[in-house]
Specification:
Length: 390
Amino acid sequence: MSRTQIALAILALSIGGFAVGVTEFAVMGLQREIVLDLGVSYAEGGLLVTFYALGVVIGAPVLALLGAKRERKRYALFLLALFAGAHVLSLLAPNFETILAARFLSGLPHGAFFATAALMAAQMVGLAKRARAIAVVLGGLAIANVSGVPAVTWVGQQFGWRWMFAVVTLLALITIAAITVYAPHQKPPEGASIRRELKGLANQRLWVGIGLAVVGFSGMFAIYTYLSHISVEVAGLSDSALPWVVFVFGSGMVVGNFVGGWGSDKSVLGTVLTAMTLVAVFMALFGLLAHIPWLMVLLLFLIGTSASALSPSMQTHLIDTAPNAPQLAASFHHSAFNAANAMGALMGGIVIDAGLGLRAPAYSGAVAAGLGVLIALYAIVLTKRAGQKV
């Protein structure tokens, strides 16, 4: 393949990340509209985030295993078709319980698609540039937070929050067309099998990495799930400012994603440790200063930057820990990320409903990130013991 062909193929894969990013994060920006329209509590509204995340946690390893021996392009297209169908169900769901079920189904193909797309991109560019290629695929998700999520948040505020599901369905169909045209066919690795992938799980470094991702990412979601409430009720911003608040956070995610990809090609775990430390610091400051609008927005950008830098570095680290189970290891990044999503949304809802206030999710997130720093240090020790590059 020429460099242009490779670039177009990776761009096509990143469009899928864009579609996933819109559905994963736009529901957070529309929390106030959903809660008010359906007459549910803050914590119940947070279940729309939690159920999607649980779908990812369960679907990522299961569907990744089923795809271990399959041709990667066709499997990516199958996963996107499943994703689109689940959003049609979300759009037409008659009640809150059905929407929860549809959100769970929407999450099932999320992790397996990203795992397949990341492995396709890495194979196309080679070992030296794989983290940057993975960052481009994941960059679709980050860019969604700058453009797609603010736009869909505005559309949802103006015309009804269900329009989010129609937009995501259209994006999924565009992605299917782009991958069909531009992405190459890729056979799975020689000797790939479900048994081989499962055997690759017997690896301490892999499970430490998964724990690191779950704990480290959870704090970001504790804030982001309730961002619309914090922005209006703590910082005193208007509802009309929410698309811009989401835009700022998304901008930080885009910057962090590509900085993380660049840093990971130099030191994977060094990038993880630095980013995790910054997340802990910025989360604590966010809790202290959220009542000052411009500082709240600035810290939100910095949280987005530092947390998103973890994404390509953690994806690369998990692939490195299980070379004999690349499909499954890559999918676990997204299981962990969305376990953190579910845990963060739940944790934030619990501390708010306990009467601790809307700043409490930031403090609980800072504690989680601090624990993530300790786990990152342990992961570095294990990697050095294995004689591998940190």
